[in-house]
Amino acid sequence: MESRHSLIIRYLEEFHQASVLELAEQFNVSVETVRRDLNKLAAEGLLHRTHGGAVSNKQRDVGRSFHVRQRMNSNAKKMIADNVIHHLFPEATIALDASSTAWNVAQRIPNIPCKVVSSSMRIIYSLSHKPHIETIATGGVYVEKYNAFYGPLSEQLLSRLKIDIAIISCTGVADGAIWESNEVNIAFKRKLLANSKQVFLLVDHSKLERKDRFKMADLSEVDKLFVNQLPPKTLQNYCAQNSIEIVL
């Protein structure tokens, strides 16, 4: 007889997403039982928990691999990373997401006394030859496609840290919002937004005035917007109204 966990995975693969209540009715169990099932399956990397339910891994993971992203707009990303370095300071705790733009920042961080926390194995490795930088890997469920860790364990670590600067990227910025193509790393980035004194958003020209599948957060949660070319006037006005510094 097929286990309930297997049936939940199969149900999500067929219908892409489901609420806790929907699954409880489908499998004739309590809401509390479904929540425990979903938390366990999420911890094993078999699905992604959302507010009030879950999403199939096959549905949510449509993002490009790191190797593909690394080659896209590489000169623009290097220019942005060069500017970010001037806004870092000794003894800071800096969090970097697993984006290729954040990786460019890691390549350029000088060997100063500071802490750098990241879910990205590439970023951790790129800092390994800088002895004054204390590197902290978040741990969690390893996803080979992104060469990074995700899931509840990563988010729990972020909750325990006092982060001075969070450095993140995204797939689009439009209509006063930050957009992402998949839900694999949204929870991690949202945790960074919530637990950091300052948030730096790194966006090359291809992402300006571009929406994607998922809204990650309001742009107003960002302190500095790093770009490689001047954004459209509407975005400039939004940043001015919300005290977001544009760094070019």
UniProtKB/TrEMBL annotation:
<dbReference type="InterPro" id="IPR036388">
    <property type="entry name" value="WH-like_DNA-bd_sf"/>
</dbReference>
<protein>
    <submittedName>
        <fullName>L-fucose operon activator</fullName>
    </submittedName>
</protein>
<dbReference type="InterPro" id="IPR018356">
    <property type="entry name" value="Tscrpt_reg_HTH_DeoR_CS"/>
</dbReference>
<dbReference type="InterPro" id="IPR037171">
    <property type="entry name" value="NagB/RpiA_transferase-like"/>
</dbReference>
<dbReference type="GO" id="GO:0003700">
    <property type="term" value="F:DNA-binding transcription factor activity"/>
</dbReference>
<dbReference type="Pfam" id="PF08220">
    <property type="entry name" value="HTH_DeoR"/>
</dbReference>
<keyword id="KW-0238">DNA-binding</keyword>
<keyword id="KW-0805">Transcription regulation</keyword>
<dbReference type="GO" id="GO:0003677">
    <property type="term" value="F:DNA binding"/>
</dbReference>
<keyword id="KW-0804">Transcription</keyword>
<dbReference type="InterPro" id="IPR036390">
    <property type="entry name" value="WH_DNA-bd_sf"/>
</dbReference>
<dbReference type="InterPro" id="IPR014036">
    <property type="entry name" value="DeoR-like_C"/>
</dbReference>
<dbReference type="InterPro" id="IPR050313">
    <property type="entry name" value="Carb_Metab_HTH_regulators"/>
</dbReference>
<dbReference type="Pfam" id="PF00455">
    <property type="entry name" value="DeoRC"/>
</dbReference>
<feature type="domain" description="HTH deoR-type">
    <location>
        <begin position="1"/>
        <end position="56"/>
    </location>
</feature>
<dbReference type="InterPro" id="IPR001034">
    <property type="entry name" value="DeoR_HTH"/>
</dbReference>
